[in-house]
Amino acid sequence: MLSYCVRNVLSRRQCTLNAAPALQLSRRHCSASSGGDLDQVGALLQLCADRHYVSPGQTNTERFQCGASCVYGPLGTELRRNLLEQWWHSVTRSTAQVFGINTLSSSQDTATGGPLRMVKSDCLQHIMDQRELSREQLVQEVQALIQRSPSPRTNFLQGALEQFVPSLELVNRKLPFGLAESGLCFQPSDGDGCPTEVTQTSLVWFCSPRTSSHWLDHWARQRLKWWRKFALSPSDFSCSDVPVEELEGAASRGVRIVYSFPWGPEPLETLWSRGQTELLQTHKGVRSKLQCRDSRKSVAHVVSVTGNMDRGVMAFLSNSLQQVKNEDNKQKLQRRKVLKLHPVLAPVKVALDIGRGATMELRQVCEGLLQELMEAKISAWPGYLETMPTSMEQLNAKYDEMGVLFTVVISENTLESGLLQVRSRDTTVRETKHISEIKNFLSRYISATDI
Length: 451
Prior knowledge:
Layout: E1 3-7, H1 12-31, H2 35-50, H3 61-65, H4 74-92, E2 98-100, E3 106-107, E4 116-120, H5 121-128, H6 135-148, E5 151-152, H7 157-162, H8 164-170, E6 177-187, E7 196-207, H9 212-229, E8 237-241, E9 253-261, E10 264-275, H10 277-282, H11 287-290, E11 301-308, H12 309-320, E12 321-327, E13 333-339, E14 350-354, H13 359-375, E15 380-381, H14 392-402, E16 406-410, H15 412-417, E17 419-424, E18 430-434, H16 438-449
Parallel strand pairs: 2-6, 14-15, 14-16
Antiparallel strand pairs: 1-4, 3-5, 6-7, 7-11, 8-9, 9-10, 10-11, 12-13, 16-17, 17-18
Helix pairs in contact: 4-12, 5-6
């Protein structure tokens, strides 16, 4: 059954005010873009479409600039999965007191529902078909339908606040601790447009009132360090305090982790020092259950960290794209595009191809090596299945644009001696290695970069 996701008209004014700073930031940068920036963004989007990071229909430069969501291709989906996995490890392994939770994607509670509602299309059509209703009655019926309809989540904060009391019991009422979650959320769009899906991450950190400022600074440093860890140009990632006039709700202070796109900075993660107001509102009448075990029996303060991983994916794609000069065999100066994604983020670690020799035997060797790499959880691209004749130069150019770390070429020499050629994406250097060394070589290389 179809349903529409609509704005809650009663909350429209509040929704627009809350979303205004980020939307104004995006619009400001969109309008300030130069022609050169547009060309750069267009070239990036075209490469992402050609190499299956985004859907071929998602090459609208304006949509990308203004932070609109996109449809991922196979490599983009894998890149996002790798990024989310690294985010999860970074927050849950940074301290023993961060726990993962999984909340509902929609809420039937009209009191805590957000600015969006999911309305069944047949119910809406039924109301519209009642011709005997006056305009005022029609508006009342639609309003009542909206109020009865579930609200899709726009963030993970409310779910974490609701999980606070049982989690406090889990940690024997000792602070600090955090609750982490990631998944899809709906974001209200500018004006009356349709809401968009965003891959969001959330860490809600509960701490004592006297240490909340310290923890906000701590997490801001940790998050900036994490983003820069995977960057080819770390200086493109920065952090800054949120201006007082842009503070959200009950927040007393905010920090944004920002990436400098070609058209200007856009926020990747936002941190808020929220105090205890929202926690008290969520658990009305149970203040005693909110008190932690310290001499003051205080109620925890909340520090929230919210990230947009779709924008994070685009930040790393933009940050990693390089145009490198090199000379071909005829000594002609050429430029090659290389997507130098960090090894732990790269969707494909190694491509397997065949050189000259008995095709059937070489494919059998490739299949055996592919299976070995898959068992070691090293993503490999089966280039040996390609039926169109392609030169090694063309293959290397393709794999560089895909961000593949290494290209392995298995030839007749491999059948005789077990030796094969390994080409590095970043250095273009070719090395000869024994086939038995490949799995351990790749594992050590990736592990060494994941520090």
